[in-house]
Structures are given as C-alpha cells and as structure tokens.
Design brief:
Elements: E1 4-12, E2 16-21, E3 24-30, H1 32-36, E4 43-53, E5 56-62, H2 65-74, H3 82-91, H4 94-102, H5 106-109, H6 117-127, H7 148-161, H8 166-176, H9 179-182, H10 188-200
Parallel strand pairs: 3-5
Antiparallel strand pairs: 1-2, 1-4, 2-3, 4-5
Helix pairs in contact: 2-3, 7-8, 7-10, 8-10
C-alpha cells in the first residue's frame, strides 16, 4: 500500500500529476480540485490509494487524508469503482457526502455523474452505518451543533430527498427545534431521526 508520496511535481495533465520521489516519477490520478492546487516544480504531498487490478496498478492521489479514506470507503459499495468514487469527491466534499448518506439525501448523491437513484439508494444502504466507524473525521457525529440555518437546511433537504414536501420538511424542523434547548449538542443525524419520527406521527 502506498499511503502517500512527497516530492516535486514533475508534470501535470488534465486528470493526473507526476510526483518525483526518490528519483522515480509516480503518476497519480487526481480530481480537478487537487490538480488546481499543484504547480510544476513545487514540492507537494499527495495522500494516495493504490488500486490493484489483474492488468494494472493505478495510484489515486488526494489533497487530504480524509478524501483518501472516504474514497476507499466509497469503493466498498456495490457498483462503485475507483473512477466513480473519485468523481463523487470531485463534486462533493467528504463532509457533504457524509451528510447526504447519513440523511439519505438521494438528490445530492445523484448530482454525481454516473450515480442514479438506485445507485444512490445502494450507497446509502451499504455505507450509512459505516461512515462514522472507519476512523474518518466524522463531523456529523461530533457534539458541536451546526448553526441553525445549516442544520435546518441539511435536515430539510434530507427529508425532501426522501420524498417529503418542502412544507412538511420545514414543519418537521419546527417540531424538533425545541429539542436543542434541552440538548444543545445534538447533531444533524439525531435531528434528522427526530424529524422523521415527527413526520411518522399521525
């Protein structure tokens, strides 16, 4: 496993970077965001994941450990290969992906080219219980309360993604907001569950 490479950037391409380390130029496939921060001749460190196939060894490079670990998590989902996982991280940040998976926001996941509704449902089903248990920096599970506008937006969008109307979603947010008075450290997942219970009540 090649976990990271450090050295001077020898070359940049539309989808890759060559980093010279120990006299060897290692080519890593990178997202546009990662490539945009690199400059030929400048020293850099890429956090990498080596994908082994019968006929190839492909190195994927990321700007942060978090991106690399989420990339590796995504590739454990059925139907998600390395290129699709990299595309997901090019469109959404790791925390945006965590939020979408935790709140079952299929609309957000479907923003990734190559992920349809069924694929998004499969990702949620297979990864929802893993996103906070694989050593990732899982902010959704942190005790810090998001700003009001942020948590309301995330919960409401999650409910809309599950098929509720925006009006119902906003009403559910109103129902759960008093919980924050007693438990100000509640995070988005707990608020989302409470909102779903509110909507389930007759």
């Amino acid at each position: 496993m090649i976990a990271q490479v450090s050295g001077n950037v020898a070359a940049l391409g539309p989808t890759s970077a060559v980093v010279e380390t120990g006299g060897v130029g290692l080519l890593a496939l990178c997202s546009p965001g990662t490539l945009a921060a690199l400059r030929v001749g400048q020293r850099t460190t890429l956090f990498t994941s080596l994908v082994v196939r019968e006929d190839s060894l492909t190195l994927f490079g990321f700007a942060t450990v978090d991106e690399r670990e989420f990339f590796e998590l995504l590739t454990t989902a059925t139907g998600v290969g390395p290129k699709l996982a990299q595309a997901a991280l090019a469109v959404l940040s790791p925390n945006e992906l965590r939020t979408a998976i935790a709140t079952e926001n299929l609309v957000t996941l479907c923003r990734v080219p190559g992920i349809g509704r069924k694929g998004a449902q499969r990702i949620v089903l297979e990864l929802k219980d893993k996103i906070n248990t694989v050593g990732l920096v899982a902010e959704l599970g942190a005790p810090t309360l998001p700003a009001q506008a942020v948590w309301r937006h995330q919960v409401a969008q999650g409910l809309v993604g599950l098929g509720w109307t925006l009006r119902d979603a906003e009403a559910a947010c109103d129902d759960v907001e008093p919980m924050l008075v007693e438990q100000p450290d509640l995070g988005v997942p707990a608020l989302m569950r409470a909102a779903l219970l509110s909507l389930a009540r007759p």
